[in-house]
Amino acid sequence: MRISVLFSGGKDSSLSALLMEPLFEIELVTCCFGLLPNGELAAKTAKELRFPHRVLSLEREILEKAYEKIMKDGFPKSAINYIHEKAIETLASDPEVKFIADGTRRDDRVPVLSISQIRSIEDRLGIQYICPLKGYNRKTVSILVERYLRIEEGPSENTPKADYETELRELIRQRHGEEKIKELFPAHIQSHVLSRKELP
Amino acid sequence: MRISVLFSGGKDSSLSALLMEPLFEIELVTCCFGLLPNGELAAKTAKELRFPHRVLSLEREILEKAYEKIMKDGFPKSAINYIHEKAIETLASDPEVKFIADGTRRDDRVPVLSISQIRSIEDRLGIQYICPLKGYNRKTVSILVERYLRIEEGPSENTPKADYETELRELIRQRHGEEKIKELFPAHIQSHVLSRKELP
Questions:
Q1: What is the pLDDT of residue B25?
Q2: Which keywords belong to this entry (chains A, B) (predicted)?
């Protein structure tokens, strides 16, 4: 039973894959618009985690609509949620895909789908959507990550990651320069997974 | 890292334990008021699942308050939720217990704690509360159960199970007879886990 896990190379999507490993056949999927080498970056992490990996190209139009949203709102929430929803829809439209998962935690706000968005995707596209970390709080996730994964952390502008935000930031950099990014995205610590920790 | 999984011998709590098995040291805990041999029943299932098991006695006063609630309401929701909350609090007051889990699914309504009840228990009692199936819908749980567990199913009055409901039903039977049970509890299909399915 194969599950496609939306994979950014970050700790939440990596831990999600580890959690489902005993019950599903895992495939990691990284969504890209082609602005940055996100696919290669995530492929390297996937290899270290020992999971099969593929890159899914998303329509450039999705990024353009997300760009319109963030420029209109002045903050990234609805733009990122929009990309996330479209990424799941794109993946779900593959007839081979029956189960989709992502790294959403209990306390996450972005990207997160509402229960009605989830049910709509499941019903329309005939897939099951799973958030294996949805019942885990931030503290428990941190403890599990510390125990099972080797990570590097740093400010978001310097830490390589293959999530939706990096390409949206890149598009804004190209059109408006560095200053605009600082204005639109709150500064936060980003993490990137290096490998599994091998337990004794 | 030990986790105490609230265990009724049903498919949701069993699947929860299987899901967390690779990352935690599992202990199954069955809560009992002593009206029925729920502890022995659950111990037998736990042995088949190959997890350590213990019985936690709950204060009889909790059952009496739940009884008052169901008699007042005319349906079991708040009575069952009340027992569930008190069971987690009782377990959390054990200083050895740091992580508690249960079998709550995405679409469950009873027993289910609100996010503020969960945060209150975590903050007051210094534990982390995890619902490993919270991001799984009913259909996916059914598929996983079918694949990994051997179960028996039947109407709730005939299927042995070690959940809160069975002892609350028993108390009502003792005080008011069979008819009152049918009046208060909606008829539903109950399941009981027999063992793991050994995969080829």
A1: 97
A2: Hydrolase
